[in-house]
Specification:
- The complex is a heterotrimer of chains A (132), B (148) and C (438).
- Chain A has 132 residues and is of the alpha+beta class.
- Helix content of chain A is 41%, strand content 15%.
- Chain B is of the alpha+beta class and 148 residues long.
- Chain B has two domains: 57 residues, no CATH class; 77 residues, Glutaredoxin (3-Layer(aba) Sandwich).
- In chain B, a hairpin with a 2-residue loop joins strand 3 and strand 4.
- The longest helix of chain B has 12 residues.
- Chain B starts with a helix and ends with a helix.
- Classes of the chains: A alpha+beta (132), B alpha+beta (148), C alpha/beta (438).
- Chains in contact: A-B, A-C, B-C.
- The interface between B and C is large, with 39 and 50 residues.
């Protein structure tokens, strides 16, 4: 399966050896701080559910369509993430869009065309598509 | 063949009782588990051939017969059954002109059954090689088969 | 399931931000093994693979057993049709399984863990491998965890397509490189398991509960669910409901609430007919049982099983005989053949049902079905053969009329039994063969 290039790769902390609970907690805080910073910069976070159920009905194609649409439109400040199945298997392929300071929105039963519309309407024009 | 199998058994040398892992790896490299291959595995692992053969034929995912380039495994568990897996089976048989357990003349596809693939919410489902496809319809089946 | 959908399963940092590996750190640096076992015992956690055996007790037995070496085995051979809870956990939150196995290892005195995972779950295998590599890199698996002197490594063993390997003794045989055939118990794996050594075998969902119990405490866990079955259960809902999928709910949630709440009711507002609980080896629950609380004890009382938490919901368009036949075909194929009651019993059950579905059934067949079911449930070697006839028992009890319609009227009202549909068509057209092309 071809790996999709992330639109913007946020440089992350290196994994390091943990020798005590305190080190674990410190590391946790470091990651959190770093992530809050990244999130502020990015503004938009797109999460695709990539469990077997999602992939079986085309999650990979959806991810490619979104990446392609973002690239075409020259949208850069967006972080793209993968997650596992969230249990709503019947609604797959599923994508979550979270814009800073706004509630997260899930789009289900996506097709590559619909996914492109989501990018255009939700991310560019900030209009949530209701019937998806 | 002998060199490939030797490499596999060497790589798994540190594992205790690695027979099934070895058979998986041999099948991945050589396509299926031929009698010749099983003999070499038996020799390398110092296990009686009867046991190696017994294990190879016990498990559904291990093939002791040559298969086509792509193996289609159709789920016929109850959740897929009630969502029309039987129709998908008939479609597949018609489209490929083969029965379950057979391979097409051009050696492109083999048709097998499998137990539940665990994606029941998008039933009916098939797995081609390692990839799963769900929510199957006749039209979707065509476009999936075209990719191979 | 608390992390599923919130984290990137291929990035250990996501797990750490959600308190990942805290429980392991606490356990190996602050608690004695026996104290860990006490917490699990007090939590009342019971095995989520289907049998519902108290997890703490199992840990204690393995802890007490004498052996040169001990092992922790995660049973990830989720073969029960209609179940995908373990797949979801491993694909979505693999580190929760690894952390729990290390905690279990510390508690029972094991330094090696095996994940026995079915070969069909390629994506889960890939993600677990990534997770193990990342945890090793950070010293959260491997040697001297948290500078405590405790070592733990985890290996993956891939199954090769055998439902029976979900049975614990068969599973161990498979890791040992043998045919996956169940063994006579006792000895139990807690005393003589993998390579003859004391072995703790837990289901993936059971293990996924461990870290959170350690972090939040046994009392917190106790307050969820019912008195006899604390905690949550992950249900896999499939079939003719609006929303199919996987949901984690408190133990004892009534079936009706699961179907109408999360499930969103029946598709096209059709009439509910039956729900099979616990996968293919589970019982078929009719409408009058819709208000049953879904936990081990309540279901056992009425001859049903919670099993793996699979719920296959069917509407009025499905035929009971056809479903039973489909289930028996599955067991006929999956029986390992070691013991006669299971090998022959499933075949005979299937043949009788096939006969009935073709309109050739006789009243006597129903008696024979019950006889066979009795013999199997009493004499089969392992759970597969003992549980295979559950659907026969429950359908004969609650849907006998439908069997009778097939036998006495040669009629399948839903049209699912193709043999009978053909007969009807032939009759109407003067005996000429216009049978459909099925």
């Amino acid at each position: 399966m071809a790996e999709v290039k992330r639109v913007k790769r946020t440089c992350e902390l290196e994994n390091k050896r943990i020798n005590s609970l305190r080190e674990l907690n410190d590391f946790k805080e470091e990651i959190r701080e770093e992530r809050v910073g990244n999130q502020k910069r990015a503004g938009v976070r797109i999460t695709t559910a990539m469990g077997s159920c999602g992939i079986a009905v085309g999650a990979q194609e959806i991810l490619e369509a979104i990446s392609d649409e973002l690239t075409t439109r020259g949208l850069e400040d967006i972080s793209i993430h993968n997650t596992g199945c969230i249990g709503l298997c019947e609604q797959e392929p599923l994508v979550k869009i979270k814009i800073e300071d706004q509630p997260a929105v899930f789009y289900g039963n996506l097709t590559p065309e619909l996914a492109r519309e989501v990018v255009k309407n939700h991310i560019v024009d900030n209009q949530i598509i209701a019937s998806c | 063949m002998e060199a490939t199998i030797e490499e596999i058994t060497k790589a798994l040398d540190s594992e205790r009782t690695p027979l099934i892992s070895v058979l998986h790896a041999v099948q991945a490299e050589l396509g299926y588990l031929s009698t010749e291959g099983l003999k070499i595995v038996a020799k390398k692992l110092d296990i009686p051939l009867s046991k190696v053969y017994g294990v190879a034929t016990f498990y559904t995912l291990l093939d002791t017969e040559e298969k086509g380039e792509n193996v289609i495994r159709l789920c016929e568990s109850a959740p897929c059954h009630i969502k029309g897996a039987t129709n998908i089976l008939t479609e597949l048989q018609d489209k490929l002109d083969i029965d379950v357990g057979e391979t097409t003349d051009d050696n492109k596809f083999s048709l097998e059954m499998t137990s539940c693939l665990g994606i029941c919410a998008v039933a009916p489902a098939i797995m081609i090689n390692g990839t799963v496809y769900g929510n199957l319809t006749s039209k979707k089946l065509d476009s999936i088969l075209d990719r191979y | 399931m608390r992390n599923c959908g919130h984290i990137d399963p291929e990035n250990i940092k996501d797990y750490i931000t959600r308190d990942g590996y805290q429980a392991l750190g606490t356990v190996v640096t602050e608690l004695k093994p026996i104290e860990v076992i006490e917490i699990i015992e007090q939590s009342g956690l019971r095995g989520r693979g289907g049998a519902g055996f108290p997890t703490g007790l199992k840990w204690k037995f393995t802890h007490q057993a004498a052996g040169k070496e001990k092992y922790v085995v995660a049973n990830a051979d989720e073969g029960e049709p209609g179940t995908s809870k373990d797949r979801l956990i491993m694909e979505g939150d693999p580190h929760s399984l690894l952390e729990a196995m290390a905690i279990a290892g510390y508690a029972i005195g094991a330094n090696t863990g095996y994940i026995y995972i079915r070969g069909e779950y390629q994506l889960a295998i890939k993600r677990l491998k990534i997770a193990i590599a990342q945890a090793k890199e950070m010293g959260l698996l491997g040697e001297n965890l948290f500078d405590s002197g405790f070592n733990f490594e985890i290996k993956i063993r891939e199954g090769a397509g055998a439902y029976v390997c979900g049975e614990e003794t068969a599973l161990l045989k498979s890791i040992e490189g043998e045919r996956g055939e169940p063994q006579v118990k006792p000895p139990y794996p807690t005393n003589e398991g993998l390579w003859g050594q004391p072995t703790l075998i837990n289901n993936v969902e059971t293990l996924a509960n461990i870290a959170v119990i350690i972090r939040e405490g046994a009392e917190w866990f106790n307050e969820i669910g019912t008195e006899g079955c604390p905690g949550t259960k992950v249900f896999t809902l499939s079939g003719d409901v609006e929303n199919e999928g996987i949901i984690e709910l408190p133990m004892g949630t009534p079936l009706r609430r699961i179907i109408e709440g999360f499930g969103g009711g029946m598709v096209d507002d059709k009439e509910f007919k039956v729900a099979q609980s616990g996968g293919s080896s589970g019982g078929c629950m009719p409408k009058e049982l819709l208000d049953t609380p879904m936990d081990y004890d309540s279901l056992a009382e009425i001859g049903m099983t919670l099993g793996s938490g699979a719920l296959l919901v069917m509407d009025e368009t499905h035929c009971i005989v056809d479903i039973a036949k489909c289930l028996m075909q599955f067991f006929k194929h999956e029986s390992c053949g070691k013991c006669v009651p299971c090998r022959e019993g499933n075949k005979r059950l299937y043949n009788r049902l096939d006969k009935i579905s073709k309109g050739e059934g006789e009243l006597e067949d129903l008696e024979r079905l019950r006889d066979l079911a009795d013999t199997m449930s009493k004499t089969a070697l392992c759970g597969l053969g003992q549980m295979a006839p559950t659907s026969i028992y429950t359908t004969l009890k609650y849907f006998k009329d439908e069997y009778l319609t097939h036998i006495e009227d040669n009629n399948c009202t839903t049209g699912s039994c193709r043999g009978l549909v053909d007969l009807e068509v032939q009759d109407k057209r003067g005996g000429k063969d216009y049978g459909n092309n099925n």
